[in-house]
Amino acid sequence: MTKVQAADLLRRNGIKKTRQREAVVRILAEAQAPLSVDSIHVRLRHKDDSVNLSTIYRMLEVLLEKGLVEQMHHPLGSKFTYVLSAYGHSHHLTCTRCGVSTRMDSCPVTTALGQLEASHNFHITGHRLEVFGVCAACKSK
Amino acid sequence: MTKVQAADLLRRNGIKKTRQREAVVRILAEAQAPLSVDSIHVRLRHKDDSVNLSTIYRMLEVLLEKGLVEQMHHPLGSKFTYVLSAYGHSHHLTCTRCGVSTRMDSCPVTTALGQLEASHNFHITGHRLEVFGVCAACKSK
DNA sequence: ATGTAGATGCAAATGCATTGCATTTGCACT
DNA sequence: AGTGCAAATGCAATGCATTTGCATCTACAT
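Output (structure tokens, whole complex):
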């Protein structure tokens, strides 16, 4: 995502534009997988674009309220991770050896949940699915 | 679960029997849903069977190693919760209003995952599904 | 009954996340 | 372009959940 596109996303959503916010959005946009606050922080430092940790937390809070990111627990550790929800509803395959998550291109459960809704008298508003295993790369080692 | 049954479970798994450990196992056995460490602690106090928090943490660590409990993030908060895995592989419906989780009696995804495995070249070893919504009780309010 | 490895309680340490406050900055208005 | 002000930032302090070090106690084998 270019600097301009990041600035656009902020303006369109009524979020005041700052160097820090643009930078965070760009990191999220470039990422192929959910990122922890810490890894966002590290990636920013590598770009010599340092942003304070609290600022990142506060920025993510804003993005959450606006529904622009999804927050989830890292499936193996105990931190939260974040993805731009522009990428849409998605699930991940997490490798238990290397810890890397990759996006699934489709959701394998939506159909199954309709039945569930009826049988449990529960109004379903969302779900989260995490799948664990060993990725192709780790298998070949 | 009776005191005797709890003691049995410990002995069968080569875990030294103590008042505290029996008590924790019984709380877990009686629970209908995953419990946080804190709520285990509170339930124990109500029974006048107080156990130190560290002891509960350490006990759960032991049970985890032996595969006797499953650990998961509380889907809404940021604590871990634990269920006896004797209850088998299961998923939960969590009410976003009252926070209560109830067990699903079946797993709606196992079949779907077979296909996934092939299409992503990923050896699947496990999965976790959380479903959110509004429970019957909260709906009627 | 007794010795010992392991379990417990307590307090302090850790790790992630949040918050209070002084300072800075973006932006609307002139 | 200059000015004012609300909002954003950085830093340090704080809040929780969890973990750890250590002195004491206890279950269990002998």
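The interface with chain B takes residues 73, 75, 78, 80, 93, 95-96, 102, 104, 108-109, 112-113, 115-117, 120-136, 139 of chain A (CB under 8 Å).
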